[in-house]
Structures are given as structure tokens and as C-alpha cells.
Specification:
7 strands, alpha/beta, seven-stranded mixed beta sheet, 275 residues
């Protein structure tokens, strides 16, 4: 097995184009994968996506300014970063802007505390894109929200999350291991990588895991197996749940609509306590 990190997106590739989000979609619901990536039905714009994109842009702008040598006080840099993000995401509501501004103020507070405690990391890359050719069978692509070197010298890759429910992330390792895998290919001398989900709605709390190179390099085998499963799929059966209401392809999925309708009926006409 061989894998190589490509400098740019290839013009063509005969294998399977995969990303973490594509794999998660297939695992969550093969029907949604078909609708999204094969039939390529139009996508919807959800409020939670707008908020997440706005917050990501604000933090990305902030660290780009600093990386490029901006020496203004951090609060001034963040103010400009927020304003630029607001222009980019003009569809954001007033309430979303207020929520994100409070997040950014919280981030500045955390940055000041980290600096005071001598644990402020050195952020080296933001929105770090990658393309990896695995055995000519998988073209793995994506981007890493943030790459940093921690105060103890450990390379650390992180992904921002704006979810309210953080419990599901504790066992969701594929994304973090994939990002660590990218860095192990880029830096052959690495023996371990620190990884984190940074929870923007939970005062920038982190869910952090460290992986050894041996653990990390198993990631390429996982993607080869995912590619095989996707190529072998014939039925594209839906996996329905209450989450179907947030599916871009709901209008094209009779099973999803039936599931949501059944839930409404059960709530409206279910058993009652008549005592």
C-alpha cells in the first residue's frame, strides 16, 4: 500500500473521490449519499450552517492577520475579522451576529488566559487543504480548520464545532485521525499527533485525543474499505430517523417523509394519561 500527498487537486482521478463528510454521509444514510453525491440534488441553506460558517470565517480571518504579521491589539484584529466575516455571510441574522460576537469575545478571553499561563499555541495554518492519493484507488480530500504547535512542542490539529450536543463527538474519531494522517504524510518524522474538536458553543472547551503514528497510519486502510463499500452498494437504502427533517434530500425521499409523518401522528394521537 502506498499513499502520497499531492500538491494540488488533480485534473482527473480514476478511483473514488472521498472526504470525511462523504464517508459520514454514506455511513449515516446510503440514500442520502446517493441523492447528494451521485444525483447531486440541490442543497438547502440551514441556519446552523450559516452560524458555523460565520464563526469559522471570523476565526480564520483572525489567525490569518496574525500569521501575516499584524501587530495590532488582538481586540482590534478580531473586530476587523468579524466585520469581514459579516460581509461574507450577509445572510446571517442579527441574533446570529450577536451570538458569534460573544463567541469571539470569549475566544479573546481564552487567548489572554493562555498567554498569561504560557500555554498559548503557535497557530501555523488555517483552512489547510489536502489531496491524498491512496494506492490510486482513493483520492482523499478536505481541509483542516487549524494546525498549531502547542507549548510542549507537540503538533496539534483541530476542528471547530458549533454543535450544542457535544456527547456524540467523543467517539467520532475518523475526522481527527484523518487530519493526523495528513500531517504524518507531510512530516515523516512525526511519532504522534495531538487532535481536538474545539467547541465554540461551550466556551472553547476541547475534546482532545493523541494518536501514535502506528494508530494514525491505519487510516488509509479505513478509507480503502469505505471506497469498496460505496462501490459495492446497490440498494442505497435510507436509514430514517428524526434527523431526516434536516436532510437536504428530504423532498426526494418518500421513506424520510413517511418517518417524520409517523412521528407527528404518534405525538398527536399517542397514548394519554387519563387518570
Amino acid at each position: 500500500m502506498s499513499a502520497k500527498l499531492l500538491k494540488d487537486k488533480p485534473n482527473s482521478f480514476s478511483g473514488e473521490w472521498l472526504s470525511v463528510s462523504k464517508v459520514k454521509t454514506f455511513k449515516d444514510c446510503p440514500a442520502k449519499y446517493r441523492y447528494t453525491y451521485i444525483e447531486k440534488l440541490p442543497r438547502k441553506s440551514w441556519e446552523f450552517q450559516v452560524l458555523g460558517q460565520f464563526a469559522h470565517s471570523s476565526l480564520e480571518n483572525f489567525h490569518k492577520f496574525i500569521k501575516n504579521g499584524d501587530v495590532r491589539p488582538y481586540n482590534e484584529i478580531m473586530t476587523e475579522s468579524f466585520k469581514q466575516a459579516a460581509k461574507k455571510h450577509a445572510e446571517a441574522t442579527v441574533d446570529q451576529k450577536k451570538e458569534i460576537w460573544l463567541m469571539m469575545k470569549g475566544y479573546l478571553d481564552k487567548t489572554a488566559k493562555d498567554a498569561q499561563n504560557n500555554v498559548l499555541p503557535l497557530v501555523t495554518d488555517i483552512e489547510d487543504s489536502f489531496y491524498i492519493d491512496i494506492d490510486g484507488k482513493v483520492l482523499l480530500n478536505g481541509f483542516i480548520d487549524r494546525v498549531q504547535t502547542d507549548a510542549d512542542g507537540i503538533l496539534h490539529v483541530a476542528d471547530y464545532k458549533t454543535t450544542k450536543n457535544k456527547s456524540y463527538l467523543k467517539d467520532d474519531t475518523l475526522q481527527l485521525q484523518t487530519y493526523a494522517y495528513v500531517k504524518c504524510l507531510q512530516f515523516p518524522e512525526l511519532e504522534r499527533v495531538r487532535t481536538s474538536y474545539i467547541l465554540l458553543k461551550h466556551d472553547f472547551e476541547s475534546i482532545t485525543k493523541e494518536y501514535t503514528r502506528k494508530q494514525i497510519m491505519k487510516t488509509e486502510e479505513r478509507f480503502l474499505k469505505f471506497a469498496e463499500a460505496i462501490r459495492a452498494e446497490k440498494l442505497w437504502r435510507p436509514k430514517t430517523s428524526g434527523l431526516c427533517r434536516y436532510c437536504d434530500a428530504l423532498d426526494a425521499c418518500p421513506e424520510g417523509k413517511a418517518t417524520l409523518c409517523q412521528k407527528v401522528v404518534n405525538i398527536k394521537f399517542g397514548e394519554q394519561d387519563w387518570s
